[in-house]
Amino acid sequence: MVRVKKGVHAAKTRRNVLKMAKGFRGPRRSKEKLAYEQIVHSLNTAFAHRRDKKGDFRRLWNVKINAGLRNYGTTYSKFIGILKKKNIEVDRKIMADLAQYDPTVFERFVKQVLG
């Protein structure tokens, strides 16, 4: 039986690894082993940070809503408590956008909920 050599596959793997390592600095861009290690690390952190991004944005929305609510004498936690008590379901992303970009609509919404 003919021996199978891995030259073609190894070259393809090497080419793909170095292609993924574009933009890295120093030997991590050109040395195969270092590039592979960096790619594994980069993909792992990218995976984790895609999960973290959801919480980061939620925290940002909470800060924006809280800043908007303080003009009306209440805080984020009290306002969310009132919304839950009245069974009002509003997306935090939408409330944050209203607080930042459309304060008049946000004011009417807050006064209606608090009123």
Name a few traits of the molecule.
mainly alpha; c-terminal domain of poly(a) binding protein; 115 residues; 6 helices; single chain
Counting DSSP H or I runs of 4 or more residues, the number of helices is: 6
State the name of the first-level CATH class: Mainly Alpha
The pLDDT mean sits at 95
Number of strands: 0
Computed structural class? mainly alpha
Just name the CATH architecture.
Answer: Orthogonal Bundle
Proportion of beta-strand residues: under 5%
Shape: rod-shaped
Question: What does this 3D model show about the protein?
Answer:
It contains six helices and no strands. It has one domain (7-114): Orthogonal Bundle (c-terminal domain of poly(a) binding protein). It is rod-shaped. By secondary structure, it is mainly α. It starts with 6 loop residues before the first helix and ends with a helix.
